[in-house]
Amino acid sequence: MEKKRIDDYEPGPVPSPRGLDRFGFVKQDANTSEGGVKTNRSAHEYERIKEGRRVRKWRKMIGVGGSDWKHYLRRKPYVVKRRIRKGIPDCLRGLVWQLISGSRDLLLMNPGVYEQLVIYETSASELDIIRDISRTFPSHVFFQQRHGPGQRSLYNVLKAYSVFDRDVGYVQGMGFLAGLLLLYMSEEDAFWLLVALLKGAVHAPMEGLYLTGLPLVQQYLFQFERLITKRLEELKEEYEKKNGKLSRSGEHSKQSILPSINSN
Amino acid sequence: MDEECDYLFKAVLIGDSGVGKSNMLSRFAKDEFRLDSKPTIGVEFAYRNIRVKDKLIKAQIWDTAGQERFRAITSSYYRGALGALLVYDITRRSSYESVGRWLVELREFGGEDMVVILVGNKCDLGESREVEEEEGKEFAETEGLCFMETSALKNLNVEQVFLQMITKILEITSQRSLEAKMDEKPINLLNGKEIHVADDDDEVTATKQAPCCY
């Protein structure tokens, strides 16, 4: 368990090793320069300047280490909402996610709990977790190395969560959530953010995606199907035609959203 | 392309997590294999058009998540499926021991005369084998299933196992449509007739499944 405070260091331009994209994934096509689409230089420059301006606005909004966040959120919720929709600057996501989700408060209220879960508790899901570790973001530089720091952190967070919430335990797919968080923050921060998301510290809990029976998944699929039927009648008909009029295509169409969850 | 196919066959891949279902499918559909493939979350599917005898068949294969929790949604995919590959990993005994539970699931949610093939995957890893080929074969026989060992990595028997399943489905389907033609009556009337056979309720449901494949 390494402690690193993400809000202490300046981001700056990260030197991108050859063959990786700016998020650290191995490029699919390493020999084409910049992944094939080379945008012209001035547009690139413009994006960079815009991003810099956005970072400064955000820094002012959240204050040092997030000290002004709650105050700002109370005073100007609509500004916050608009800015979030424009995109949180990459270098501040780790901190901002913790502030928005309420996970920072959970962390402060529960000192030592994470360490306890990682070191002393055992989980029934340990084997399941291990089986999936090397299959989670295998093309990312942080998770690539077998038993490397990335894989170890991922294992710790997932195991800790499966102990923390034994009803949910470990469910396949959680690794991609925890893994993404680990790219932006320390293990302990990632763990509490996972807790905040699934248990609903500030927003509605997401644990229904993983609970037995997958109630929230079922709800979303139902809503999705109704929306398609209501808004995209033609698409629905086309789908049924393409699938050779399978007798229960209604049921399939609502569920075929699932493949898209799994495609990177 | 679609219109040229004589049949659309739907089949499912089931079995414990990490036995190699997704790689079997990618080998069959795209001739690809990835050692680091992602765990399947929920369900995915792939198509391949394949010629068997003089028929062009569109095989629509649904690949399901192996983890227990996902059965809440995956089991509904068995309905309308004409075939299933029940996969275990020959190097992991626990995946073989789960086969019984998967069968229960199939029989509960799947069609009556679904073609089921028991598949022992990863047969290239003979040195860490935990389930003997004979054992799998015998179990399959007692349960009335077909059996094959495969290696998605080495591309051994993968094509064959899918082909065997599709061929069997084709046989059953042609048999069915022949019977229907002989009777010169629509399928639902046929069902009506069979209801008179008091102690043969199962047959009725079996016939109902047949139209799904057209």
From TrEMBL, chain A:
UniProt GO MF annotations: GTPase activator activity; small GTPase binding
Database matches in SUPFAM superfamilies: Ypt/Rab-GAP domain of gyp1p
Limits of the Rab-GAP TBC domain: 87-264
InterPro entries: Rab-GAP-TBC_dom (IPR000195), Rab-GAP_TBC_sf (IPR035969), Rab_GAP_TBC_domain (IPR050302)
Domain of life of the native organism: Eukaryota
SMART domains in the cross-refs: TBC
Zinc in keyword set: no
Pfam families linked to this entry: RabGAP-TBC
Chain positions covered by the region annotation Disordered: 1-21, 243-264
Basic and acidic residues composition bias: residue spans: 243-254
Alphabetical UniProt keywords: GTPase activation
The keyword Metal-binding appears for this protein: no
Bias kind Polar residues: ranges: 255-264
Protein name, as recorded: Rab-GAP TBC domain-containing protein
Organism: Trifolium subterraneum
TrEMBL record, chain B:
Cleavable signal peptide: none
Membrane topology: Lipid-anchor
Protein localization: Endomembrane system
InterPro entries the UniProt entry points to: P-loop_NTPase, Rab_GTPases_membrane_traffic, Small_GTP-bd, Small_GTPase
Keywords: GTP-binding, Lipoprotein, Membrane, Nucleotide-binding, Prenylation
A Pfam family matched in the record: Ras
Main location group: membrane
Molecular function as annotated in GO: GTP binding; GTPase activity
SMART domains, per the entry: RAB, RAN, RAS, RHO
Claim: Repeat is one of the keywords in the record: no
Cellular-component GO terms for this entry: endomembrane system
Family: Belongs to the small GTPase superfamily. Rab family.
Protein name (database record): Ras-related protein RABA6a
Native organism: Trifolium subterraneum (Subterranean clover)
